[in-house]
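Hi there,

I know you've been waiting on this one. I reran it after we fixed the sequence typo, so this is the corrected version. Both the input and the resulting structure follow.
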Amino acid sequence: MVDRILAGAKAIALARRNHAPLAPLEVPPRDEAEGYKIQRALHDLLLPHAGPLVGYKIACTSQVMQDYMQMDHPCVGGVFEKVVHDSGAKLAASDYVRVGVECEIAVRLKRDLAPGEAPFTAEWVGEAVDAYAPAIEIVDDRYVKWETMGAPTLIADDFFAAGCVLGEAVPRSSVPDLKAVAGRALINGEEAGKGTGADVLGHPHNALAWLANHLAAEGKGLHAGQLVLTGSLVKTLWLKAGDKVRMELDGLGVVEAKFT
């Protein structure tokens, strides 16, 4: 079992380091639980390349993304220190296999959410949030054909996660009703998608509670200072070199990046 897990993690890590499309694994994970075991082993292998794990991204929290990915529940992937950028970042499209972006509400925690506190509710995790930020999640279609990979393998590879770009943080006391926050995604000045905070499992705190409970079931917690991308308000937008990206989230601000 350990050999299966490590072999899968090594194959994914090699593809990630080489910016090479990942073919179906020789021994793919049998189910999502095994996919998460490979993901944990992968995170250890990525440390020298991507830096420490600084948080998580939650995938498939909105109906538009569940329909697109053909998934009926959320999934989680890691976010690493070296791929968290400030608004205005200029990033090389060649650093990705096929780069895409999503419009998200990010949260930063002010205290730990320990596994012993589970089960978590939206209200409970909301109290643990320090600040919010408008975010561009960067995703990478680093697969020969993602539609045939299967959810367990996508989970093993952090479910497309490739980092994020963050706008200015807004203290929790200053944010509007997150359910009503409207987000717009603009590519080269043209609106390419829109949604609201209510599209994220009814409220972004519901997504955060799902993550805290998911981690608690594995005996793991969330920690003060960690970043969580709560899920996309819009369908993934695939980019080409030269594209300028701007996400506008009412009451939270704006975040921008250029992919050169």
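Quick highlight: The longest strand covers residues 129-140.

Best,
R. S.
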